[in-house]
Amino acid sequence: MAKRRVTTLGLDDVLLRQCAKHSLVTLQDVLRLSLVDMMRCLRVSAARARALQQQLYGICAPSSTTAWALLQEERRARPLSSGQEELDVLMAGGFHRGTVTELAGPSGVGKTQWCLSLSLQCLLGGSSPAPVIYIDTEAAFTPQRVVEMLSERLSEAEQARLPELLASIVVHRPSSVEHLQKILDGLELQALELGAGAVIVDSIASLVRKQFPAHAPGGGGHWQKIFVLADWAARLKTLAANCKLAVIVTNQVTSRNESNAATAEALNEEAETDLELDNDDAAKESKIIPMESGEIEEPGSRYVTPALGNTWTHFVNTRLVLQYTSRPGVRQLVVAKSPVAPLAVFDYTITASGISVSGRGKYSNQGCDPNTIHISVQPGASI
Amino acid sequence: MKEKERTLISLGLPTSVTARLHMCNLIKVHDLLDFSPTHLSEVTGLNLMDCCEALRLCSSVSSENAGQTVLDMIEEGGSLSHIITLCPSLDEVLGGGVLLGALTEVVGTPGAGKTQLCLQLSVSVQLPKWCHGMEGEAVFIDAEGSFIASRLLEIADSAVSHCDQLRSSDAYQNQDKEENGSSFTSESILKNVHYFRCLSQLSVASCVKLLPEFISKHPRVRIVIIDSIAFHLRHDTHDNRIRTSQLCSITQDLIQLATNHRVAVVVTNQMTTRIAHIDSKLMKNSECLNDRVSDDEKRRRTATPHEEEMTEGRDLNSSPNKENLKRKLSGARSDTISVSESVTTRRETNATLTPALGESWGHCATIRLLLRWQHGRRNATLLKSPHKATASCSYAVTAAGIRGLLET
Known about the structure:
The complex is a heterodimer of chains A (383) and B (408).
Chain A lengths: L12 H9 L5 H5 L3 H8 L3 H15 L4 E2 H10 L8 H6 L9 E5 L6 H14 L7 E5 L6 H11 L8 H5 L2 E4 L4 H9 L1 H8 L3 E5 L2 H7 L9 H23 L2 E6 L1 E5 L6 H12 L26 E5 L2 H7 L2 E7 L6 E7 L5 E9 L2 E11 L19
Parallel strand pairs in A: 2-6, 2-9, 3-4, 3-5, 5-6
Antiparallel strand pairs in A: 7-8, 9-10, 10-11, 11-12
Helix pairs in contact in A: 3-4, 10-13
Chain B lengths: L1 H4 L9 H9 L5 H4 L4 H8 L3 H11 L11 H8 L4 E2 L4 H7 L3 E2 L3 E6 L5 H11 L12 E6 L6 H20 L8 H7 L2 H6 L1 E5 L3 H17 L3 E7 L2 H7 L3 H22 L2 E6 L1 E5 L4 H10 L5 H8 L17 H12 L19 E5 L3 H4 L4 E8 L2 E8 L7 E7 L2 E4 L4
Parallel strand pairs in B: 3-7, 3-10, 4-5, 4-6, 6-7
Antiparallel strand pairs in B: 1-2, 8-9, 10-11, 11-12, 12-13
Keywords (chain A): ATP-binding, Nucleotide-binding
Pfam family, one (chain A): Rad51
GO molecular function, one term (chain A): single-stranded DNA binding
C-alpha cells in the first residue's frame, strides 16, 4: 500500500504534475511530507492539503471489524489442526490462520517430522484440505518419508489419490538468505494461486546463522541478522494475514550461560500454588508439569534455549519447544508462548504415519519465559 | 466574517468605553483584533479591566483556550478515571488501573503477557458501571497478529460470569438486576471491540490519524490499544531519523487522542538487548570526571542511540576500575533488567534488556509499565508515572485473563 504510485490514486492533473515536479512517486512519499511541505510542494491551501492527507490516510488505513465478526470467521475457517485432539483443544483449534508459529528444538528431536506431519494434516485435514508450500533450507525434506507417511494415513481405497496429493506440496530449496528473500517476494502470489493452507519454513534459523555468524569480523553481522529476521517476520505475518493461512517455522537451539534465572525445577515447585486460583476451571484436568530437564542446572552451568535471541522471540506469535525426555523414544512438546494457551507439556513419539501424541497433556497457568526456557537435549552415550 | 464587521457599539459595552474607543477611531470589531490589553490601554487611556472586557467581547480568543482549573479537571473526571484490570495487585501498582486521558506504555519480554493484558483491558473497559467499569468500547490496533478472537471470547465469558456471581451476592442486592444483566454478554463484549489489522507502519500511522473521526462516530470508545507499536518500526526502516520522526508524529496523535476524547491509550513495546559498551576514550573522560559527573550524566552517556539493538559488546579489559564503572553504568538505570534475571546473550557480558525504540521514545508515554519474568513468575513493575511511586507486583495469566496471585 505504501508503495502505491500517486498516479494510480485518481488525483487531478494539476496535483500530479506538482508531485512529479518534486519527485513524489509513491503514496508514502506524499504522506511523509509535513502539512507545510505539502502545501508548498503541491501548491494547495491548508484546507485542501489536510483533506488530501485524510484521503490518503483513508487509503492506507485498514477497515475496521469487530471481534465478534472475527470470531465468526474463525469458526468458519477453522485453524490448521495439529492432528492431535488434546493439543487442538488447548490451542483453541490448532495453528491459527494469520499467525506465525515456531517449533524450536535440538537436532534430531523431530522438528522436520512435525513439519511433514503438519503438511499432511493440511493436505488431508478435515473440512478444508489445501495445498502446502514447504521451504526447506536444511535439505532435510525427503520425498520418501512423505510417501511413507501418506500411505500410512490413506486407506486402501484412497491410495490412488497419492500422486494427486504429492503434487499439492510445493517445495522450495533456497541456498542463501538472498534466495529465500526472492522466494518470499513471490510467495503471496503463489499461495493465492494454489489456495495454500499452510506455509512451512524448515528452518528459519539455518541460513541466517550460517550467513551472519555471531562473531563475524567487523561485528555488523548481528545487526544484519536482526534486520533480515525482522523483515522475514513481517513478510510472513503479512502473507499469513492476507492469504488466511498458517505459517510454521522451525528454529534451532543455542547454549547459554546459566545465571540464577528461574529453572524449570523452580518453576515446578511454584506451579502448585498457582493452580489454586483455577477454581472455576476444576473441570479441566490440571497437574503440575514435570519438565524433564536433561541435567540438574546449577548456577553458572550452561543450558540450551531457542536460538535467534530475544528480538526474534517477540516476532513469533506462538513458540512450541520440542525436547528429549529420559524415556527412550518419548519426546516432549512444550507450549512456551501462545496467545491462547497456557504453558503445557505433551509427550509424543515419532511413528510411521508421522507424529503421535501419547497420553494427556498437562498444563499450568504458571507460564515460563519463552526466551530462556531450558531445553533438554539428547543425553550422551555412556562410555 | 460578519462578526468582524460588527460595530463596537452593538457589543453592549459601557457608553464611556465605546465613546473613548470611538474617539480613537476604533469603530468595528476587526479594528480591535490586533490589540493586546496593555497596548489598547496605552492607545485609548482606558483602564486595563475595561480593555480586557472589550477585547474579550470582540476577540476571537474564545474561552476554550482559557485552560482549565484543577477543580474543573477533578469534576470532569468524576469517580471513574481508571480502567480496572481485574488483577487487584496490578490495579494497585497502576494507582487504580489504566488511566483515562493518558498514554500508557506496556513494555515486556516475549511471552510476559502484553497481548493478554491488552485483551483483558478491552474486556474490562466494558464492565457495567456498578461493577467499577465504564461501559465503554475498545479499539484494538493489531500490528503483531496475535489477536485470536476465541481467546477474547474466553476472557469475556469469565468476565460475564464474574459479574453474574457478584450480582447474586449480597453486596449488590439493591442493584437493578434486570437492566444491568441484559446488556453485558459475551456477544456484546466482542461486538464492542473494534479491530484493525495493520500490516505496515504506514497503515498503523494512517489508522491513528483517522481514529478521531472513528471515535466521534463511536463515542463510547474508552480505550485505544496498539499491540505493538514496535514491531513495524523495527523492520520498516533502518534509518533512525525517519523512525524517530515517525514515532514523534504518532505519539503526538496518540496524546491528542487521549486528551481530546478522554480515552486511555495503551501501546505495547518490545524489549531489546543492550550491552553497556564503553570505548576507551569515554572511559578516560569518565575516569577523570568521576568525582564531578553525576550518575545521571553517566547514564545519559551510555544511552547513545547506536548502542540500541546490539547484542554483542566489545570485550572490556577487566581492570578493577573499569569493572566498577561498567557496573555503575549499566546498573544505574531503573528500566534495565540485569543479566541475572534474564539472560539474553551467550557470553557473560553486562547485557541488559531494555525497552525498544530508544531513549527519546521513553519520554513519550505518561505511564510506563514493565512486564517480565522474575523467579519463575510474571512480574509487573511501574517504571514511570506522574502520580504513583515505583512499585511492582506478581500477576498470573489464567484462562480467565489477567489475575492476581495468592500470596503464599
